[in-house]
TrEMBL record:
Its main location: periplasm. This is Oligopeptide-binding protein AppA. Residues 78-436 form the Solute-binding protein family domain. It comes from Antarctobacter heliothermus. Keywords: Signal, Transport.
Length: 532
């Protein structure tokens, strides 16, 4: 059988940490300097430090410094050794054997063994929102010796290696967390945390402040370089900009700022403002209609409205490097296909299609009205997008009531109760569609959980295509299945793709080896150092 590049390399990979050093971040020409404190800012509030029980970027950033994964990736998204120094895939594709780094230890000094890997796999499979999508085919983890873990599979699973990052399956201490308590609410997820990665928790105010210190017993010799990371949540972007500008903050990963803010910060010679990178994240911004609600249950209506969305205008106003989206797999992903219907902006066509659908305007010029829920992150950006939709829809006789929410939880409750007309939304597709794309379209994933199939789309043929794509190692077959999938869901407008958001990173120019490619900020920062 033909094996994808990711898996083909996995059969023979055996790299040392020293070789790995140069592949995961911007290359540095000088010898890394140990020591120093990195001051980091974020707007996101994290509820836990355990990425096995919580998806998303808020938890992922700190968790990837506290916990190691079996694997990490290089800039080309190819798997590289981390806690697993090597791995091999059986000829039938039904098992993967991992050999662990010898003498790797948790932060409390206990050895990391294959039993911890087994516990961690089960923890993520059971508790992570994508757990079954990532690990549903893993029937058991055999532990023939402390350094060997064998993942036994019910079907070939080409996405497995992409799922073994600390963002999804952190290696957890079973001797601490396997005590009979519910892992999702375990107190040691936030207090007295015992990790396996480059930095240890020194102090923690959940969701607000986090102090990490160097793990002197980290299994990669000489790493990490930083002595300390101070991670602080800020509710005020104005304060963030001021503190970055005056040097009080060193690093703003995945920055949520306006184009004006970025323009200001670019003028500071002490700062680096970087657009792009984070290729493994795969964000897509879209308009989500509740398909249970009339008239959005009618395909011809969704298609008509798609012609009334001025994506070009949105990109121009946002001026932040976003691009127009035509499908739901990111353009940098190997499974991206542009062989999909394209809904050009054409108000006359949109109006004519609504007429044909029987949705004619009344004496007031209004055909129908609906409420558009607006998420809370990137408020300025969301407002621009929502107002642009409102203006162009008004021109075809569709009235939009933009609803704001006081906090993230309020928006989540509205969407997951299915008591909404439409919402703006954004998901991360991640490096393999199995992890981040399937969840929005599978019939089995229609559930009251955010970033699932909340729109209520169900097509058994799409389910079949996704199943086939997730159980073959043949890269060409996978590409074909995903091409058919994209063509179908874009034609049916299960969701309406709008934008491909661009990642922005701001950091002090004397911070070296900031990770920008691959998982970017959501990978380990063990190679980052301060040139001061």
């Amino acid at each position: 059988m033909q094996v994808s590049g990711v898996l083909r390399s996995a059969r023979t990979t055996l790299l040392t940490a020293a070789v790995l050093a140069g592949t995961l971040a911007i290359s540095a020409t000088a010898e890394p300097k140990p020591g120093g404190t990195l001051n980091v800012t974020s707007i996101s509030k994290w509820r836990t430090l355990n990425s096995a029980v919580q998806s998303g970027t808020a938890t992922g950033l700190p968790a990837s410094q506290i916990f190691a994964g079996l694997l990490r990736v290089d800039e080309a998204l190819q798997p590289q050794p981390y806690l697993a120094e090597s791995w091999s895939i059986a000829e039938d594709g039904l098992s993967v054997t991992f050999k662990l780094v010898e003498d790797a230890r948790f932060h409390d000094g206990e050895l990391i063994t294959s039993e911890d890997v087994k516990f961690s796999l089960l923890a993520s499979k059971t508790n992570h929102p994508f757990g079954m999508a990532m690990f549903g085919t893993v029937t058991d983890v055999a532990t023939p010796d402390p350094q060997t873990a064998v993942f036994e599979l019910s079907a070939p699973t080409p996405s497995l290696l992409a799922s073994l990052q600390p963002l999804f399956m952190p290696v957890l201490p079973s001797h601490v967390l396997d005590d009979g308590q519910e892992l999702n609410t375990h107190p040691r997820n936030n207090e007295d945390v015992v990790g396996s990665g480059p930095f240890k928790v020194a102090s923690h105010v959940p969701g607000e402040k986090l102090e990490l210190v160097r793990n002197d017993d980290y299994f990669i010799e000489g790493r990490p370089y930083l002595d300390k990371i101070l991670y602080t949540r800020s509710r005020n972007t104005t304060t963030q900009v001021l503190e970055l500008d005056r040097g009080a903050l060193d690093y703003y990963p995945v920055a949520f700022l306006s184009s004006q803010d970025f323009s200001r910060l670019k003028k500071n010679p002490e700062l680096t403002v970087h657009q792009g990178g984070h290729g493994a994240m795969g964000p897509i911004f879209f308009l989500e209609y509740n398909l249970r609600q009339k008239p959005f249950d009618r395909l011809e209506v969704r298609q008509a409205l798609a012609h009334a969305i001025d994506k070009t205008r949105m990109v121009q106003i946002l001026a932040g490097g976003d691009e127009e989206a035509i499908t739901f797999i990111h353009k940098d992903n190997p499974f991206y296909s542009d062989d999909v219907p394209v809904y050009e902006f054409d108000l006359d066509k949109a109006a004519a299609m609504l007429d044909e659908a029987g949705l004619t305007a009344g004496s007031d010029g209004i055909r129908f009205s609906f409420a558009l829920e607006m998420p809370t992150w990137g408020r300025n950006r969301q407002t621009i997008i929502a107002e642009t939709i409102k203006q162009t829809f008004k021109e075809i006789g569709v009235e939009v009531d933009i609803r704001t929410h006081p906090d993230f939880g309020s928006w989540v409750n509205r969407v997951t109760s299915f008591e909404y007309d439409a919402t703006l939304n954004e998901t991360l597709g991640y490096s393999d569609p199995v992890i981040g794309v399937h969840r929005s379209f599978l019939c089995s994933n229609i559930r009251p959980v955010i970033w699932s199939n909340t729109e209520g789309y169900c097509n058994e043929e799409v389910d079949k295509l996704l199943q086939l794509a997730s159980t073959t190692y043949d890269i060409d077959e996978r590409k074909d299945y995903y091409a058919q999938f994209q063509k179908t869901v874009v034609e049916e407008l299960a969701l309406t793709p709008m934008l491909v958001p661009s990642f922005w990173t701001v950091f002090n120019s004397d911070v070296k080896n900031i990770p920008l490619e691959g998982w970017g900020a959501y990978g380990p920062w063990d190679n980052v150092y301060l040139d001061r």
